[in-house]
Amino acid sequence: MFRAFLDEFKKFAMRGNVIDMAVGIIIGAAFGKIVDSLVKDVIMPPIGLLLGKVDFSNLYLVLKSGSGEMPYNSLAAAQAAGAVTLNYGLFINAVISFTIVAFAVFILIKGINNLQAKMEKKEAKEALKTALKTKTCPYCCSEIPLGAVRCPNCTSNLEK
């Protein structure tokens, strides 16, 4: 019984779509780390510099002070003191990160769609070339060369 269960699980786990999903999740997690670093380390510092050295991740509103002296120097200090904070700077970072991910996915999908359209256009051209070189036998409906006078499939005589 356990052996049958194990065999069924192995069959399920080795199906192509399960493996594709696992690869997608792993790539997605790695891509998420790249985007996170892009936002934190590349995009946010110049934006913060343009806005007067503002670090969005350190923007917060104290809802209820904790132990320790107010004002707190950073979000970490406020949280360490036990203050209840509204972390809108982290939300701004998340919105910027989402926008970058959405834009990257848009560019990726746009590229894939363009490539797919080119491939379909090429296939349609090839099909048209083939269609112009062949005709359909009126007796057996098979595709035969345009200049054929006898069908190679049903041996019927064809009119020119």
What does this structure look like?
This protein is mainly α. It has a domain at 1-54. The chain is 62% helix and 8% strand. It is built from 4 helices and 4 strands. A two-stranded antiparallel sheet has the order 1-2. The chain has a two-stranded antiparallel sheet with strand order 3-4. A hairpin with a 6-residue loop joins strand 3 and strand 4. Helix 2 packs across helix 4. The longest helix has 46 residues, at 88-133.
Adjacency order of strands in the biggest sheet = 1-2
Radius of gyration over all CA atoms, rounded: 32 Å
Give the overall average pLDDT. 85
Broad shape: elongated
Task: Count up the helices.
Answer: 4
Query: Which structural class do you get from the secondary structure elements?
Result: mainly alpha
**Distance linking N and C termini:** 69 Å
What series of H and E elements makes up the topology?
HHEHEHEE
Share in helix: 55-70%
The counted number of beta strands is: 4
Estimated share of beta-strand residues: 5-15%
Low-confidence stretches: none
The largest sheet, given as strand count, sense and whether it forms a barrel, is:
2 strands, antiparallel
